[in-house]
C-alpha cells in the first residue's frame, strides 16, 4: 500500500492506495480548526438531558453525549463551567458541531493507552502464558489509576526493551495532555495527531512507502470518476440481484430487488438464496462507501426456521467484516450496526439540501484547478475557459487570493463564463451553446492573461 496527500485550495486530500485502487481516504478542510483525534480540555457551556456543548476557546465548539463523559480523567458530575478532557471522534458535518467522547485513546504500533478504565488488557489472541506473564512484568509497574494500557496481538513478537520504550513514550504523551487544576492560562487543544489516516496504517505495518506526489492529484486519481464509481445508488450483482442503497442523515436504507435473480440451485428456499447472495456482496459495497452507523435492509421474508438458519449463516459473514447484526424482524427487516467514527464518502464530499445530495462546491473547484495544473504541465496549455454557476463563482471569489496565487505560479490564465440557471456547475466550455454564450455574454477573467 502507498499514501497520497495533496493540499489544494479548499481541502487536503489523503488516500491509501493499493494497486492503483483507493482503499481508504481522509478529507480535511484547510480552514477547519477541529480535527479527528484532537484532544481538548474543554469547558461545559450548556447542557440538557442528553447532551453537553463544550467551549474549546475557538469559533468551533464540540458536543458530547452525557453518557460518554465519564472516564478515568472525568467524573460523571455535569455542571456549567466544569472542565472535561475529551477527544474528537466525529468531525463536523453540515450544521452539526464535531462530537467528542470523554475516553481518550493514544495509539502506537503495539499498544493503546486509554482513559476508558485503568488496568492492563492483553489481547486474548496471545495465548502463550509465559508471554502474557512477560508482558505483565513490562506494563504493570507503569500503570496508574489515570489510564489503562491495551496490548495488541502483534506485541507478542516484539522485544521487551522496544515495548518498554514504546509504552514510556505513550505515557509521556499522555502526561503532556493533562493540566494542573491550578493552571489558569491553559491551552484548550492538548494534543493533535498529524496525518491520523496514515498513522493508522503505519501502526498496522501495511504501508510500504509514500508515493511520489507527481504534479497533480489528477495524475494519480481522477477524483470525480472515483466518487461516481463509489456512489451508484443501484448496484447490479452478477447473480441478477439489484441493491438499492440510500444513505440518509441518520441511517442507511437498502432494498433488495430479486426480479432478475438467476436461481442456480432449487435446493435452497428462494428467499433464503436471494437474501444470502445480497448479504454476501453487501460488506464490499458498504466498505467502498465507508458507510457506518445503522444500516436497515429490507430482506425477502422467510419462514421462522429458514430465517433462524439465515441469521446464523450471515452473523459469521458479517463479523468477519466487523459488522454487527442487531436484529431481524419476522417480516425480514434486518438491522446492522457498523462502528466507525469517520464520515463516509457521501458525508465527506457531498452536501444535502431540500433538492437532494450535491457534490460540495469546494471539492468541484479543487478538482478542476488540479486538472488545469495537470493539463498545463502535460500539454503546455496555459489558457482555460470554464462555464460556472453563480454559486461556484462566489465560492471561488471567497478564495480569490489563494486561487490566483496558485494559477499564477503555474502560469495559467482562467476565463469564466457565468451560467445563470444551474447550480453546482463548473465545466470546460463545450462547442455549440457555450461558444454562442461566450460571444453574447460578458466573461470574467479570473486571472488576467499572462
3D architecture notes:
The chain is α+β, with helices and mostly antiparallel strands and 450 residues long. It folds into four domains: 1-35 and 194-213; 39-192, Nucleic acid-binding proteins (OB fold (Dihydrolipoamide Acetyltransferase, E2P)), CATH 2.40.50; 225-338, Aminopeptidase, CATH 3.40.630; 353-445, Hypothetical Protein Ychn, Chain: A, CATH 3.40.1260.20. Helices cover 30% and strands 30% of the residues. The protein has twelve helices and 26 strands. The protein has helices spanning 129-139, 160-177, 196-203, 217-220, 223-229, 270-289, 304-319, 345-349, 361-379, 390-398, 400-409, 433-440, and strands at residues 2-7, 11-18, 21-29, 39-47, 51-55, 61-65, 83-90, 98-101, 105-107, 111-114, 119-122, 148-151, 189-191, 209-210, 234-236, 242-247, 252-257, 293-298, 323-328, 333-338, 350-353, 356-359, 383-389, 413-419, 426-428, 444-445. A six-stranded mixed β-sheet has the order 15-16-17-18-20-19, with helices on one face. It has a five-stranded mixed β-barrel with strand order 4-5-6-8-7. Helix 1 crosses helix 2 and helix 6 (270-289) runs parallel beside helix 7 (304-319). The longest helix has 20 residues, at 270-289. It is globular, with a radius of gyration of 26 Å. The chain starts with a strand and ends in a 5-residue tail after the last strand.
